[in-house]
Write a structure and sequence with these properties.
single chain; mainly alpha; two-stranded antiparallel ribbon; 2% strand; disordered C terminus; binds beta-D-glucopyranose
Length: 522
């Protein structure tokens, strides 16, 4: 297939400031299509994030499965707004999925390494489909929660394998953009779910929630079909000993001749050999030389969740209702935040490889901080500590929604995409699959935590909840500034150089490496 653009892959300075290492390669149609389709694995994750908040704000759904919340919400109009939806079992409905995803991402680590990235994606799609069907036909809460658990298994498999797949396929110059398509597809999934909820809530007869939950089957079918037809990554082929096929695949996706892929191919084989020598990737992760990767694989996803983004993503409709919006207005506001989230992700798709990861992280952090505090102040002024509000003028609600949107857009071009991209590109092959599982499971653990405690925290901390998250946003921005080196344009198998050149992490790097990459010891 013809190349899209005829530029050479980005090079970078060798570890000693010496030779410029370069892999020739172009952004070919074949790599573009594979990465974009592969990244669509995020759809199932996103659909799920967006669907539960709307469904749990639908009266017929609450009445059927959570009658106590329904009564509290419908009948007791005088209840403190902050505590309206505070129910453990309702929370469990949303959060059970993330616990399941946590467990399955650990299993997926083995599958991704042993059988390849595509197999994990396929398994993810199929299990997810089973969950969607269970949920659509749920007649009791058990079916509902089991369905969520199946969905969670699917999400765990997909989030473990998709970012690795894309990072390995993409030429390093475009890795950021292509990987961010994963986040873009998460945001598309969220938006579609919000729109679906908006319409299904209006279905006469009150069974719209079944359509919302069953609709998850559509992205599941899509991602399963995609995983079926996608090619394997060259890294994965080499790991499985299919050397010749890997070579051919590399030529195809880089759009260059056999002799031109020699350098990259040799590096991949060397990385694979180093990886093969590692019998216990999990145990290896504890080695001193992997300390920076280990720290990042834990802190980046944890901090991503501590931005508080999922308070908006899961509970936007509930949150807006608590703020005194009507049912329809709440679902509509969720559509608006979903749209902003998706559109702003394009900034990351186009900007990550241009401006670098650090700049986006830091700008996004500062913007989130400012607007989170603004939301806290606005809510405090109207709702105070009692949570009772008699009149909320429309202009006031609009300002609150606008501030939330500006906060969401900052997340959408910083911590959202980079929270997935950066971990997936910093792990050397020998620990990649295990480390990615850590990233996913930490992400899911904190997603679970935020989902679990949000409604009670809103009830207890009131507007202070937004201040609570903003403290973390401040800490994480400083953390990035001090500890995350720039990874833009560095070939994935040569990432070691960035740690070697970092003021803090260099002390963890061994003086000499036994791995020769492209003739340059890194
Ligand atoms: C996060 C999700 C979040 C979503 C919002 C993702 O990167 O992992 O937890 O809901 O972004 O767009």
């Amino acid at each position: 297939m013809a190349p899209l653009v005829g530029i050479k892959a980005d090079g970078f300075m060798g570890p000693n400031g010496g030779d410029r290492l370069e892999y020739p390669g172009k952004l070919t149609w074949s790599v573009l299509i594979s990465c974009v389709l592969g990244a669509m694995g995020g759809l199932i994750f996103g659909y799920d994030i967006g669907i539960s908040g709307g469904v749990t704000s639908m009266p017929t759904f609450l009445e059927k499965f959570f009658p106590s919340v329904y009564k509290k919400e419908e009948l007791d109009k005088s209840t403190n707004q902050y505590c309206k939806f505070d129910s453990q079992i309702l929370t469990l409905f949303t959060s059970s999925l993330y616990l399941a995803a946590l467990v399955s991402s650990l299993v997926a680590s083995y599958a991704t390494r042993r059988f390849g990235r595509r197999v994990s994606m396929l398994v993810g799609g199929l299990i997810f489909m089973a969950g969607a069907i269970l949920n659509a036909f749920a007649v009791n809460i058990l079916m509902l929660i089991f369905g969520r658990i199946f969905l969670g298994f699917g999400v765990g498999f997909a989030s473990q394998s998709v970012p690795i797949y894309v990072s390995e396929m993409a030429p390093c110059r475009h890795r950021g953009a292509l990987n961010n398509v994963f986040q873009l597809s998460i945001t598309i999934g969220i938006l579609v779910a919000n729109v679906v909820n908006y319409f299904t809530a209006k279905i006469e007869g009150g069974w719209g929630w079944r359509v919302s939950l069953g609709g998850a089957a559509i992205p599941a079918i899509f991602i399963s079909a995609v995983a079926w037809i996608l090619p394997n990554t060259p890294n994965s082929m080499i790991e499985k000993g299919e050397l010749q096929q890997a070579r051919e695949m590399l030529c195809r996706i880089r759009g260059v001749s056999d002799s031109e892929i020699e350098a990259e191919y040799t590096d991949l084989v060397a990385a694979s050999e180093a990886s093969r020598r590692v019998q216990h990737p999990w145990r290896n992760l504890r080695l001193r030389e992997y300390r920076p990767q280990l720290v990042m694989s834990i802190l980046i996803p944890a901090l991503q969740q501590l931005t508080g983004i999922n308070v908006v993503m899961f509970y936007a409709p509930v949150l807006f209702q608590s703020l005194g919006f009507g049912n329809n207005a709440s679902l509509l506001s969720a559509v608006i935040t979903g749209l902003v989230n998706m559109l702003a992700t394009f900034v990351a798709v186009f900007g990550t490889d241009k401006w670098g990861r650090r700049k986006l992280f830091i700008e996004g952090g500062i913007q989130m901080l400012i607007f989170q505090v603004a939301v806290a102040v606005l809510i405090a002024l109207k709702f105070g500590v009692s949570g009772n509000v008699t009149d909320l003028p429309e202009w006031y609600s609009i300002i609150v929604v606008m501030c939330i949107c500006i906060y969401v857009s900052a997340f959408a071009w910083s911590w959202g995409p980079l929270g997935w991209l950066v971990p997936s590109e910093i792990f050397p092959l020998e620990i990649r699959s295990a480390a990615q599982s850590i990233t996913v499971s930490v992400n899911m653990f904190f997603t679970f935590g935020v989902a679990e405690v949000f409604l009670s925290m809103l009830c207890g901390l009131k507007y202070g909840l937004f201040i609570f998250f903003s403290v973390f946003v401040a800490i994480m921005t400083v953390f990035i500034y001090a500890f995350l080196p720039e990874t833009k344009g560095i070939p994935i198998e040569e990432m070691r150089v960035v740690w070697k050149g970092h003021w803090y992490w260099k002390r963890f790097m061994p003086d000499h490496d036994d791995q020769e990459v492209n003739g340059n010891s890194v």
